[in-house]
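Weekly modeling sync, notes
Attendees: S.R. (lead), two postdocs, one rotation student

Agenda item 3: backlog of single-chain predictions. S.R. asked that every request posted to the team notebook include the full sequence so nobody has to chase files. The rotation student volunteered to paste the first one in as an example of the format we agreed on. Action items at the bottom.

Example entry:
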Amino acid sequence: MSETNRLNSSAGETPPDTPLRSLLIVLNKRRKTFMFFSVAATVLIIVLAGFIYLGQVRQQVTSLKFKLDFKGVEENRYPNGMKFSTSDIVSSEVMDQVYKQDNLKKYMDFSDFKAAITITQTNDKLKFLEFEYAGKLSNRKLDV
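Predicted structure, as returned to the notebook:
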């Protein structure tokens, strides 16, 4: 700053307008407008996020536990001696029969129905064994 400007500033005169000062003056005059648009944009974003969240496709997951209880199931054999597999339960023939018998056509297509059914085998003894060894293997003092 030159000596003249410094003297003028200390004498109570306003300093010359700079581009930044001009911008700040304009922004200060329009602060209510900026606040209004900021609040309006925030509300709009919240409303849009709510519509997107509520418009998501929902799926209901149901689990049905059952136990196969017939002679020969431990050896993967039907009672008549034929080979048995859990994939027989979700085979196309069985699924088609269930789809037609229960008139599921009014709810969904057959391909969607077939894709929605899965079989997961569980064994309580195996789960207990996994739990037991997970506890043993989590021991930090365990060495090889």
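Discussion: group reviewed the output briefly. Residues 31-54 form the longest helix (24 residues).
Action items: rotation student to repeat for the remaining queue; S.R. to check formatting next week.
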